[in-house]
């Protein structure tokens, strides 16, 4: 029941923040911080627990830290089914922490309707948590939509100059792809019902279904498109730079830190295990799209003068590694993909928080109008340097571990694609260091008196620095946490990693 309590805490916290605005405009942000803190404390016992409930999925035993199933609409096979294993536990923990970071990032940024802003922030978090723990496909789709609507409002109401365009583009891309997934879910359920006579949306019962090849392929494509759009993978990425650029800082933190991860989570949890053979048929294409995203995102990052837009294109590049890793589908690449998800969540959330802080202080995102800021804001400059070198994959930090495992595992599967993806490490280093030079290095014509990071900003940045360093130097605790869940998903596919691609290139 802990998972349900966490979501209720976030839902009620958002509602309370909205209602309290009429009496005190400063309290909503404190309520949001408190909601994230309470939800985090609820999660702690689950992190410390050992063992759990064993469930057989398609003939494969799996241990779940927590599992809840309650009847909802039994006539249509729809139930409240929640499950938490090591993989989803890691994602929920990341969500709650970055929720705290998002509140801190927007602390004195939002003057207009602060209560309604925090309401949408908390409900976005609740929707994301639901996505990570829902194991009924109808329920999963419900939370998929829950996280979409409040994020739309965050961009449309509190965004910057072209907020309406960016919000509508984000909404159309994610809504249309989500509806495609809904159709795939319904066809999957009805197809399974026609074969087994069992009407159910339960993930455990749909695993291992035997559908005709053509139907299975098109259903897999429905899931694939929805998740790759959210990832985002090339060529479905075009909504992301606009959304990130126009979104308020908190929304950018959530978009980069956790909403993109729901796409990767969906590929690992649903697309490949539900349709292993169909997924294997497009594996080369998917890996190629991942490599294309790595290089294309890096190329466009070179051309940017807008700091937020540069970081947005860097996300396209970095999430391309995840797409390569997922569809290489070896134990190494899956572990690397999850590590990349966590590391990217920290590093990119921090860079967007940095971009928001610069825009708030300088009233511009144009890097050509910056330069020499390290002299006036040394803490901000040092922190920016740390996260930029983390983003480019510096050894000893979490991003390096994720990318190294992905490339190492993928090389045995497809050498050509892996070599192309490796070029992204070089291009990433170039645009990242150029950004650092343009913003913080050099000399300024005059002193502008920019305010350095204070205790509030540092309270968010320091834990992310510690986290990235820890998983970069000693990633084993993360691997120990996620290994049972990923091993089960890997076993469910029953596909040799070499056969997965065909003949290794």
Descriptive overview:
With 505 residues, this protein is mostly helical. It has two domains: 1-276, no CATH class; 282-505, no CATH class. Helix content is 74%, strand content 5%. The chain is built from 21 helices and four strands. The chain has helices at residues 2-20, 27-48, 86-105, 114-133, 137-158, 163-196, 203-206, 213-230, 239-246, 249-274, 276-281, 283-302, 307-328, 331-362, 373-376, 378-391, 398-411, 415-440, 455-473, 476-493, 497-501, and strands at 53-57, 60-64, 66-73, 78-84. The strands form two sheets. A two-stranded antiparallel sheet has the order 1-2. Strand 1 (53-57) and strand 2 form a beta hairpin. Helix 4 (114-133) runs parallel beside helix 10 and helix 16 packs antiparallel against helix 18 (415-440). The longest helix is centred in the middle third of the chain and has 34 residues, at 163-196. Mean pLDDT is 89; it is low at 496-505.
Question: Can you summarize this structure?
Answer:
This protein is mainly alpha-helical and 505 residues long.
Question: What's the arrangement of secondary structure elements?
Answer:
Blueprint: H1 2-20, H2 27-48, E1 53-57, E2 60-64, E3 66-73, E4 78-84, H3 86-105, H4 114-133, H5 137-158, H6 163-196, H7 203-206, H8 213-230, H9 239-246, H10 249-274, H11 276-281, H12 283-302, H13 307-328, H14 331-362, H15 373-376, H16 378-391, H17 398-411, H18 415-440, H19 455-473, H20 476-493, H21 497-501
Antiparallel strand pairs: 1-2, 3-4
Helix pairs in contact: 1-2, 1-4, 2-3, 2-4, 3-4, 3-10, 3-14, 3-19, 3-20, 4-5, 4-10, 5-6, 6-8, 6-9, 8-10, 9-13, 10-13, 10-14, 10-20, 12-13, 12-18, 13-14, 13-17, 13-18, 14-16, 14-17, 14-19, 14-20, 16-18, 17-19
């Amino acid at each position: 029941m802990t998972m349900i309590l966490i979501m209720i805490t976030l839902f009620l916290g958002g509602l309370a923040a909205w209602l309290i605005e009429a009496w005190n405009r400063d309290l909503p942000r404190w309520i949001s911080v408190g909601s994230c803190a309470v939800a985090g404390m609820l999660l702690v016992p689950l992190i410390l627990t050992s063992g759990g409930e064993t469930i057989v999925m398609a003939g494969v035993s799996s241990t779940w830290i927590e599992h809840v199933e309650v009847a909802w609409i039994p006539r249509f096979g729809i139930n409240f089914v929640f499950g938490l294993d090591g993989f989803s536990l890691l994602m929920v923990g990341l969500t709650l922490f970055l929720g705290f970071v998002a509140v801190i990032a927007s602390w004195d940024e939002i003057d207009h309707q602060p209560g309604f802003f925090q309401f949408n922030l908390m409900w976005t978090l609740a929707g994301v948590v639901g996505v990570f723990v829902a194991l009924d496909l109808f329920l999963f789709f419900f939370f998929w939509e829950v996280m979409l609507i409040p994020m739309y409002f965050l961009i449309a109401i509190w965004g910057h100059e072209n907020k309406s365009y960016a919000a509508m583009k984000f909404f159309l891309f994610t809504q249309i792809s989500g509806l495609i997934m809904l159709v795939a879910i319904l066809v999957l359920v009805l197809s399974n019902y026609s074969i087994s006579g069992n009407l159910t949306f339960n993930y455990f019962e749909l695993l291992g279904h035997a559908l005709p090849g053509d139907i299975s392929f098109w259903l897999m494509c429905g899931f694939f498109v929805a998740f790759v759009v959210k990832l985002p993978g090339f060529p479905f990425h075009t909504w992301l730079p606009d959304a990130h650029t126009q979104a308020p800082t908190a929304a950018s933190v959530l978009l980069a830190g956790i909403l993109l991860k729901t796409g990767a989570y969906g590929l690992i949890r649903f697309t490949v295990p539900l349709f292993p053979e169909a997924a294997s048929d497009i594996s080369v294409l998917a890996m190629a799209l991942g490599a294309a995203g790595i290089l294309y995102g890096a190329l466009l990052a070179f051309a940017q003068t807008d700091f937020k837009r540069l970081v947005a294109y860097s996300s396209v590049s970095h999430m391309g590694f995840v797409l390569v890793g997922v569809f290489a589908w070896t134990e190494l690449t899956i572990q690397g993909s999850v590590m990349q998800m966590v590391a990217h969540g920290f590093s990119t959330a921090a860079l967007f928080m940095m971009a928001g802080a610069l825009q708030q202080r300088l009233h511009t995102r144009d890097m050509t109008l910056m330069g020499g800021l390290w002299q006036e804001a040394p803490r901000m400059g040092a922190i920016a340097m740390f996260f930029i070198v983390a983003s480019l994959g510096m050894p000893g930090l979490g991003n390096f571990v994720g990318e190294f495992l992905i490339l190492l595992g993928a090389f045995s599967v497809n050498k050509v694609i892996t070599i192309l993806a490796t070029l992204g490490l070089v291009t990433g280093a170039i645009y990242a260091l150029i950004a650092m030079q343009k913003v913080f290095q050099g000399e300024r014509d005059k002193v502008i008196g920019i305010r350095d990071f204070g205790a509030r900003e540092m309270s968010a940045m320091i834990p992310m620095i510690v986290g990235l360093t820890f998983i970069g130097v000693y990633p084993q605790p993360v691997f120990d946490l996620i290994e049972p869940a990923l091993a089960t998903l890997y076993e469910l596919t029953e596909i040799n990693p070499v056969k997965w691609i065909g003949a290794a290139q």
